[in-house]
Q: What sequence folds into this?
């Protein structure tokens, strides 16, 4: 699972095809006279850890790091007050979609750092939060990321499954990294795959995804999932004046291959220009969007206007937190933030993103200016 090579005057170890450990060659040569490769990889202070896909700094978060896994929107667990918990094991994406709501991929203008979480540590936190929620929890693996870049994906799914409260495990993926073998190995372990396919047209795919996108491969992946025990939900993003012609074709494709065995086969999403996401010129009104979905519902005899109930999602108490909007706290900065100009501090067993110029290791006093679904943003005071 480790390959090694040299690049730009550095010795590079590539772990599980995603974690790059880089050490300046002369330093590596000096260290290798005294220490083994494994010792250098683990203990050398001179190494840099890089996300192989995005080439950004990568923080490895484990139990030893002492980083709480609640409080950040990009990694850990997000609890929006229902029986569904979003599990975010890694950041970073191999695509560069024009509609990306989190400005991910190589073309990002905002993302500065990436994070990856040790599967045991993530499962430990999940178990704590799921235990609080009670029976019938859905663990939904997603992220500001392509979750299948996570090199411990199957291991994580198995650990989530072993938690008593877990009823459903689902994942949101762009499908480009799935293969027939991977789908077979997930059969019986994962319940549903939400596959985002926004066009079936090669040329438009390049425009939408911002990189070369394997349309035929992803169609094949969709067919393989549909004919397995895993449920398939196809989730296109409808971007006006870009893929208007594609949505009906995707509906027909989903129905043809037999998507949606237990849950609805399609989850058509409207492009929304989110804060921090990519902005496009043309935005459809909700009214136009839902009117069209209702027409297609009639025409194709399929449910397209969905609600949380269609997925068995119900309100549940939020995992308690002492952090309140407007309050001030002082916490230690433990990592650089996800976006430029941000740091991550710990307070009251939560991570808080803080806008500050202070450095990792320093303490910062801040006021919480945003608190949403258990994720926090603070501003230095
Ligand atoms: S696949 Fe998802 S995370 Fe990746 S760039 Fe596209 S929208 Fe963003």
A:
């Amino acid at each position: 699972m480790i390959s090694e090579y040299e690049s730009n005057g550095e010795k590079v170890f590539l772990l599980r095809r995603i974690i790059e450990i880089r050490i300046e060659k002369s330093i590596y040569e000096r260290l290798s006279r005294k220490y083994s490769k494994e010792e250098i990889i683990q203990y050398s202070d001179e190494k840099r850890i890089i996300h192989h896909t995005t080439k950004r700094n990568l923080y490895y978060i484990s139990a030893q790091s002492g980083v709480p896994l609640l409080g950040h929107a990009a990694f850990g667990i997000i609890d929006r007050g229902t029986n569904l918990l979003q599990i975010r094991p890694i950041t970073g994406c191999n695509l560069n979609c024009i509609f990306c709501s989190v400005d991910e991929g190589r073309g990002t203008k905002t993302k500065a750092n990436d994070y990856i979480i040790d599967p045991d540590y993530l499962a430990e936190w999940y178990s704590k939060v799921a235990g609080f929620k009670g029976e019938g929890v859905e663990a939904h693996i997603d992220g500001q990321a392509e979750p299948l870049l996570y090199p411990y994906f199957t291991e994580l799914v198995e650990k989530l499954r072993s938690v008593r409260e877990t009823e459903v495990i689902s994942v949101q993926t762009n499908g480009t990294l799935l293969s027939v073998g991977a789908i077979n190995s997930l059969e019986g372990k994962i319940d549903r795959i939400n596959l985002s396919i926004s066009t079936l047209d090669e040329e438009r795919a390049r425009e939408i995804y911002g990189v070369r996108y394997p349309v035929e491969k992803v169609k094949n992946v969709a067919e393989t999932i549909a004919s397995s025990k895993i449920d398939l939900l196809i989730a296109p993003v409808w971007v006006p004046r870009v893929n208007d012609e594609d949505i009906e074709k995707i509906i027909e494709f989903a129905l043809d291959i037999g998507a949606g065995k237990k849950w609805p086969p399609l989850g058509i999403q409207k492009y929304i220009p989110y804060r921090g996401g990519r902005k496009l010129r043309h935005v459809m009104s909700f009214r136009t969007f839902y009117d069209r979905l209702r027409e297609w519902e009639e025409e194709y005899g399929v449910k397209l206007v969905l609600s949380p109930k269609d997925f068995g999602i119900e309100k549940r108490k939020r995992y308690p937190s002492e952090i309140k909007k407007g309050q001030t706290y002082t916490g230690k900065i433990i990592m650089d933030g996800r976006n430029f100009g941000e740091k991550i501090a710990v307070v009251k067993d939560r991570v808080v993103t803080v806008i500050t110029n202070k450095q990792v290791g320093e303490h910062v006093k801040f006021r919480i200016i945003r608190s949403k679904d258990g994720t926090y943003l603070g501003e230095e005071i």
Remarks:
- The pocket of iron/sulfur cluster is lined by residues 93, 95-97, 100, 102, 104-105, 145-146, 174 (CB under 6 Å).
- The chain has a mean pLDDT of 97.
- The first helix runs from residue 25 to 32.
